[in-house]
Amino acid sequence: MSASAVFVLDLKGKVLICRNYKGDVDMAEIDHFLPLLMTQEEEGLTCPIMSHGNVHFLWIKHTNLYLVATTNKNSNASLVYAFLYKVVEVFTEYFTELEEESIQDNFVVVYELLDELMDFGFPQTTDSKILQEYITQEGTKLEVAKTKVPTTVTNAVSWRSEGIKYKKNEVFIDVIESINLLVNANGSVMSSDIVGTVKLKTMLSGMPELRLGLNDRALFALTGRDKGKTVTMEDVKFHQCVRLSRFESDRTISFIPPDGESELMSYRINTHVKPLIWIESVIEKFSHSRVEIMVKGGKEFLMRASFGLPSVENDEMEGKPPITVNFEIPYFTVSGIQVRYMKIIEKSGYQALPWVRYITQSGDYQLRSNF
């Protein structure tokens, strides 16, 4: 089961807009949400799920808004939260910024979107590209708009419209890996992992089926092949277009892609990462008014800076924040993940070009110092 109703509140708990999907929870129950939240905050404990009697509040905060779902059933909490974050994503794509003002200025469109995003408590059409085909920011009444609802809403492939045509058929694949790394003051790696995403920019005619092959260790084990470098992916998440049953049976990533840009999948690789960028730093205090900082990056870059400071002494112990590094390395992935092939199958039989790009970038990359 999912949500009974969804509310958008301001920071004072005032209901800006709401949608009652099932009618099995009194809408006045929302009045208990903010008092419950304030009580928890006073006690120093904030819980994402709060209850009043048999009514449960599942909520998130975004800018100056609370998005709250209510239910009196043992609902699938992860589904409800995924829906609330999807609502934020869709509203942001419509209004650029999701805040109290954008809700008030686009009341009709917001209500229409809430009506289409969920049906009787279950997520329905959540792809903003499809929603934008028949719910416009001009606030067209839904009764009129329904005459123009695309067939994708009722088709199994709800994320792609029919009749798409391109003069040149291409697929751009971006494999982007972010490195999360924490190094202590002694130079030892305390924690590290790699978070990766595979993003697509699809410009293909018709209704093509794509099959993506990666150097996935589980796939190679199934097929009895062990040549070359393979990668073990964890916490794999797919776009709704991917046929999960096919992936679970033979690790084939098969799908009919959304048109344009989309995130096909994400994954995590829990492995020991050798620091790509190493930084040594020394801070010397010569007096109450002069500090010299030396930062060394590898063997090629050295910065030495001397600061003249107001001669005011602070007896309190100064903090030692870690050094945060931001970088981006093209044409390279730390994990060694590779796109082995991309097959494009379409009944018209056209030829299409797949392009692959690899990028490694910093995630939460921090080095603690002992200065």
From TrEMBL:
Function according to Swiss-Prot or TrEMBL: Subunit of clathrin-associated adaptor protein complex 1 that plays a role in protein sorting in the trans-Golgi network (TGN) and endosomes. The AP complexes mediate the recruitment of clathrin to membranes and the recognition of sorting signals within the cytosolic tails of transmembrane cargo molecules.
Residues of the signal peptide: none
Gene, per the UniProt record: AP1M2
UniProt keyword list: Cytoplasmic vesicle, Golgi apparatus, Membrane, Protein transport, Transport
Keyword Metal-binding belongs to the record: no
GO cellular component: clathrin adaptor complex; clathrin-coated vesicle membrane; Golgi apparatus
Transport in keyword set: yes
Pfam families: Adap_comp_sub, Clat_adaptor_s
Organism whose genome encodes this protein: Oncorhynchus tshawytscha (Chinook salmon)
Identification of the protein by name: AP-1 complex subunit mu-2
Compartments in which it is found: Cytoplasmic vesicle, Clathrin-coated vesicle membrane; Golgi apparatus
InterPro entries: Adaptor_comp_med_subunit (IPR050431), AP2_Mu_C_sf (IPR036168), AP_mu_sigma_su (IPR022775), Clathrin_mu (IPR001392), Clathrin_mu_CS (IPR018240), Longin-like_dom_sf (IPR011012), MHD (IPR028565)
